[in-house]
Amino acid sequence: MAQQRFDQLLQAIHNAVLRAQELTEEQHIHQLDKYFDDEGKPLTQELMVPTLDPDDDPDTLVAIQVPIMSLLPPSAIKIKELRVSFKAALGKIKISDEDGDGPVAPSLDIDTGGGGGLFGKNQSTADIDITFESGDPSESFLRINDYLIKSVV
Questions:
Q1: Where are the beta strands (DSSP E) in the chain?
Q2: Burial class (CB in 10 A: 0-12, 13-18, 19+), 57
Q3: To the nearest 10°, the Cα dihedral for 64, 69, 73, 74?
Q4: Where are the domains of the chain?
Q5: Which tens digit of pLDDT belongs to each residue from 2-28?
Q6: Contact 76, 142 (CB under 8 A)
Q7: Which candidate, 84, 86, 79, places its Cα nearest to that of 20?
Q8: Paired residues of 86 in beta bridges
Q9: How far apart are CA 35 and CA 66, in angstroms?
Q10: pLDDT, tens digit, for every residue of 117-151?
Q11: What distance in Å separates the CA atoms of residue 143 and residue 13, rounded to the nearest whole number?
């Protein structure tokens, strides 16, 4: 890896984190496919439960259709923390463009190794730690679930 601009490296890391967050959001949307059919009707599981009629025999069971969504706790994950550490040799600070036509935002060149630059032929290394945390389900998920539960009872 030859000389690169430090701000471009940070932008690439930032874009990677944004894409990872998008993947977790897509996971939430795909999760709904587990609970609803192609027509948008809730998938259900038939359960046998005691009757609520006080005049019936206590051993009498009735079949009810329970939405699967109300039986399974939703799982929501999100990125809590990201740490990236790497070795980089500092290069020159650029304060004008290559053609010398005019000023540009100052940028810092770095060398992360691997291309025979300031580090020689060593491979680039980076330590990356990503911490995910469980989040609360969305408000709309909870409302749909409440509605489905009320439709059973």
A1: 4-5, 44-50, 61-67, 76-86, 89-96, 103-111, 126-135
A2: exposed
A3: 180
A4: 4-152
A5: 667 778 878 888 888 888 888 878 887
A6: no
A7: 79
A8: 126
A9: 11
A10: 544 555 556 666 767 777 777 777 778 878 787 77
A11: 36
